[in-house]
Amino acid sequence: SLTEKLTGLFKDLSGKGKLSExxxxxxxxxxxxALLEADVNYRVVxxxxxxxxxxxxxxxxxNSITPGQQFIKIVHQQLSATLGTxxxxxxxxxxxxxxxxxxxxxxxxxxxxxxxxAKSLLQPGRRVMLAAADVYRPAAIEQLExxxxxxxxxxxKKDTTDVVDICRSAHHEAVKRLTxxxxxxxxxxxxxxxxMMDELKALQSxxxxxxxxxxxxxxxxxxxxxxxxxxxxQLELTGVVMTKLDGDARGGAALSLRxxxxxxxxxxxxxxxxxxxxxxxxxxxxxxxxx
Amino acid sequence: IAGRRGxxxxxxxxxxxxxxxxxxxxxxxxxxxxxxxxxxxDRPALERLRAEMLGILSLNSGPSLQNTGLPIRPQVWxxxxxxxxxxxxxxxxxARRLISQxxxxxxxAADTYRAAAIEQLKxxxxxLGxxxxxxxxxxxxxxxxxxxxxSAASQGVxxxxxxxxxxxxxxxxLRDELGKIYHxxxxxxxxxxxxxxxxxxxxxxxxxxxxxxxFSEVVRIDGIVLTKLDGTAKGGIxxxxxxxxxxxxxxxxxxxxxxxxxxxxxxxxxxxLLE
Lengths: 291, 275
Ligand SMILES: Nc1nc2c(ncn2[C@@H]2O[C@H](COP(=O)(O)OP(=O)(O)OP(=O)(O)O)[C@@H](O)[C@H]2O)c(=O)[nH]1
Ligand SMILES: Nc1nc2c(ncn2[C@@H]2O[C@H](COP(=O)(O)OP(=O)(O)OP(=O)(O)O)[C@@H](O)[C@H]2O)c(=O)[nH]1
Ligand SMILES: [Mg+2]
Ligand SMILES: [Mg+2]
Known about the structure:
The structure holds two protein chains of two kinds. The longest helix of chain A is centred in the N-terminal third of the chain and has 17 residues, at 21-37. In chain A, helix 1 packs antiparallel against helix 5 (67-83), helix 5 crosses helix 12 (282-290) and helix 8 (163-176) runs parallel beside helix 9 (194-207). Chain A is built from twelve helices and eight strands. Chain A has helices at 2-14, 21-37, 42-56, 59-62, 67-83, 110-121, 140-151, 163-176, 194-207, 224-234, 253-261, 282-290; strands at 98-104, 128-133, 154-156, 181-186, 211-217, 239-243, 265-269, 277-279. Chain B is built from ten helices and eight strands. Chain B has an eight-stranded mixed β-sheet with strand order 3-2-4-1-5-6-7-8, with helices on both faces. In chain B, helix 2 (26-38) crosses helix 3 and helix 8 runs parallel beside helix 9. The chains are: A alpha/beta, B alpha/beta. At the A-B interface, helix 2 and helix 7 of A face helix 1, helix 5 and helix 8 of B. One guanosine-5'-triphosphate sits between chains B (81, 83-89, 111, 114, 117, 165-166, 227-228, 230, 253-256, 260) and A (106-107, 137, 188, 190).
């Protein structure tokens, strides 16, 4: 693990008296390598290492009797701090329904995440509605309808290819049924497919979601920066959900996403079951990324 | 840098960035840069880099669409991969390609787990005019595959494409399930599956190597389909997979329609990476 590598490195060095700048740079190269292997974007890595070195070259590490531990602590702290404060759940609007729009690339886990969110929000006395706004993928609407039955929440679909009409009508129905949460599942799309990005913009202005969540596959590599840049520039994102982190992907995209969007990672998808949704914990994610 | 032969440290750094941003990975990038530094400088550096990468990707031409030699019937394709990588859509695209060559194709829905998975493949078979074999959610996937091979053989179909459920390579019980599907198919038709394809999303980073490694422990992977190359991700991770596991890329997925599949062209792939 990185901690073992760094501890070993500092053990070799600390016997030779006070640490030098070169020692610090050698250690930060190890961190750089670990972050790249963890899929953190190479530019985000450069910025991160620069900020770590700046702190590490101060008295805090150089004058410490346990410089290795101090250095590792700085790296971990810096990473956790960048990943954001913990637990930013969905915020309820002042007037129901709170509208949550879920978007992202193809296959990232949006439909499953919508159902997981619905399940977690469906508490006694609360009414939740899932709306099927993916009119492209074969059996997408069936998929969400089956999931909403499993969750036990309301479901909305409309026989039209006009996605704005679907979401407006869903909102109308949600108001009628005194719904607390309306979750809009949208089709997967590329951030460079402008007509499809325009569809999301049209939805945003027509329905005015209180929350717009970008769903990103936890195994995403360097491309996370491109995805994050386009989605955050073109939409008023309020948060990110990272999925499929029940595998061995290190999840470095989290750092890239946070660095580019400045938005909180609100949840992690940790499995295919509808209960597999957890609030984001920055310190835990930092450990996972560092390996 | 394009026409230059020798490289300065700054230029090597630029090349390293180019490789890293394409998901080539730090270790594979190191190997490529070492080859560049040590290699002869009789040609421009980028040309040497291109040649080096092509060399890595040009693995012996294993079985593919056109050249399996013997007229095996049905030729059985097993399509595997992690969740959401594009397996079901790839099955449809492969079917489309085979049908356009005048072959009779059946699609088998062995994803008996995910909501509406069977319906999704069934809809594709309707659009394609392909045969369809499926059971229902909750059925045993190995049994569905077994029955599909039997029915395809008895109907004299040319190709049987078996779509499987998305599964994380780290889940032992799901790897075991995949192994069971693989061996059960072979029991019904010795030699089958003739082509097992790992569907890999081009946006995937270093985790793709772990996927290829762990799935290789339960099935022989004949090739990779690299999907979603119509996005901005470069899919450079296939270089490491080629080097470490000798698994070739056979097809590229370039969109969501049934025609959006291309035979993999290493030259244009490398050009796309280096632009
Ligand atoms: N292991 C695991 N699988 C997940 C997770 N989230 C979603 N999946 C699976 O990922 C696959 C894709 O999920 P979907 O919800 O269909 O993805 P999507 O973003 O709606 O896909 P499109 O609508 O086609 O863009 C399915 O097999 C899901 O069961 C997760 O957190 N862990
Ligand atoms: N842009 C693009 N989208 C693709 C490509 N291949 C598949 N997709 C999309 O990716 C999403 C997931 O595709 P599926 O075929 O359902 O993926 P899967 O691997 O079968 O998913 P699971 O069965 O849930 O594991 C769908 O929205 C597809 O349309 C591709 O080459 N390019
Ligand atoms: Mg979906
Ligand atoms: Mg599928």
